[in-house]
Design brief:
With 275 residues, the protein is mainly β. The chain is built from one helix and 15 strands; from the N terminus they run H-E-E-E-E-E-E-E-E-E-E-E-E-E-E-E. The longest helix is centred in the N-terminal third of the chain and has 8 residues. It is globular and about 55 Å long.
């Protein structure tokens, strides 16, 4: 059962239920419904924005990744379909592995930095609202994601292999604050000569509505590294979302990691329009 638009926690439920269908660990990108209850969730949403992150990711040399993101999402009843295409600029000795909320940068040997640019992997996802109770504000969702190997693997913009991921998340709302706990598993494509492994991931998110137009939130992500010898990723994202009008929304965010597999710092912004 879908959350209704006239129920006070309906918008917050929709905010958190899509926070892991987006590009990179910046799942805050999808929290664009955080500002006010929507008149109707069904329909098409188009978004564009940028993301930047920097770190050594367990290597010897700094690696920077900048992404311009184009995203389309269509919602009908309990189903949400989403397609994301990034244009990437990679500066440093490394390879981008995974996609969506499980993007990881695997450093290459040596310290020589080089610059590569081009379109990244297309990520297609689907989310199903399996259960929702309006009285308690509790929701349970299941979803899946596939990464299509459209990026140039010779330039380090992808692996040239597909990845598949499944996810389960529970959401609970109290007054103006909603909490989300999610767990997932990714089957990682293994290019020849690599020992990449399948990985598990978990996250905890909170969204708090300051007023009818603005909300802020935080997401903590834990993910195993696709590299067996590396520690898992641990990242914190903070975001601020604001509704500009009935159709337009904007969001800015910043994130950082607490392990050598995570970025030292990252930030970005996203603009979205609902049709």
């Amino acid at each position: 059962m879908q959350p209704q638009a006239d129920h006070p926690c309906g918008a917050a439920i929709r905010v958190l239920r899509h926070c892991h269908t987006t590009y990179h660990g910046a799942c805050a990108l999808a929290l664009l419904f955080a500002a006010t209850p929507l008149p109707a969730a069904d329909g098409l949403q188009l978004s564009t924005g940028f993301d930047y992150n920097r770190g050594k990711y367990g290597g010897d040399s700094p690696i920077e990744v900048a992404a311009t993101v184009i995203q389309g999402r269509f919602e009908r009843g309990p189903y949400v379909w989403q397609v994301t295409l990034p244009y990437l600029v990679l500066h440093g000795p490394g390879t981008l592995v995974g996609g969506g909320d499980s993007l990881e940068i695997v450093p290459a040997a040596g310290t020589q930095r080089h610059r590569e640019a081009g379109f990244g992997d297309v990520v297609v996802s689907m989310n199903y609202a399996a259960f929702y109770d309006a009285q308690s504000g509790f929701a349970l969702d299941v979803g899946g994601r596939i990464k299509l190997p459209t990026a140039d693997s010779d330039r380090g913009l992808g692996t040239g292999k597909s990845d598949l991921a499944l996810r389960l998340q529970a959401i609970r709302t109290w007054d103006r604050t909603s909490w989300m706990l999610g767990v997932g598993y990714q089957w990682t494509g293994r290019p020849s000569g690599t020992d990449y492994r399948n990985v598990g991931q978990a996250s905890l998110a909170a969204d708090h509505r300051l007023n009818e137009d603005t909300s802020l939130g935080a997401i903590v992500d834990f993910r195993q590294s696709v590299q067996p010898s590396q520690p898992g990723q641990r990242e914190l994202t903070l975001y601020l979302a604001h509704r500009l009008s009935r159709q337009w929304k904007i969001q800015t965010y910043v994130y950082g990691g607490a392990s050598q597999s995570s970025p030292d710092i990252g930030f970005g912004s996203m603009l979205s329009v609902q049709f």
